[in-house]
Specification:
The protein is an alpha+beta fold and 117 residues long. It has one domain. The protein is built from 3 helices and 4 strands. A 4-stranded antiparallel β-sheet has the order 1-2-3-4, with helices on one face. The N and C termini lie far apart (38 Å).
């Protein structure tokens, strides 16, 4: 059982290695990013730089028992990413996974999994 869990973790992390931190997007155009990642949830222009905001989240619930009492707990996992453009091309991608050691980075990888440079 433990071995099966460990293998699923390894497979999950290997699925998005190049996309989890966004480094593979550097050099792509704004048009390319919108084509593969969709429209951003927000954008902003500061000087010569444009910032696109992307995010993915998932909420999971669990029922936990303590004595004769059941509690519903919620746990949110996901990723926020900011793509920085200068001269119409990606110069930096900042990702912020949250909610889990494994699930956050996987969520970051899924944001840009359709993007190929």
């Amino acid at each position: 059982m433990v071995l099966k869990f460990a293998l699923s973790i390894i497979v999950g992390l290997a699925a998005f290695p190049a996309y989890a931190d966004g480094s593979s997007l550097v050099g792509m155009s704004e048009e390319d990013i919108v084509a593969c990642a969709g429209l951003p949830s927000g954008n902003m222009q500061i000087g010569s730089k444009t910032f696109f905001q992307y995010g993915a989240s998932r909420e999971a619930g669990a029922i936990n028992g303590v004595g004769n009492t059941l509690f519903l707990s919620r746990h949110q996992t996901g990723c926020d990413a900011t793509v920085t453009f200068q001269n119409d091309h990606v110069v930096q991608v900042t990702t912020r996974p949250y909610g889990g050691l494994l699930t956050g980075p996987i969520a970051c990888g899924s944001l840009f999994a359709s993007c190929r440079h």
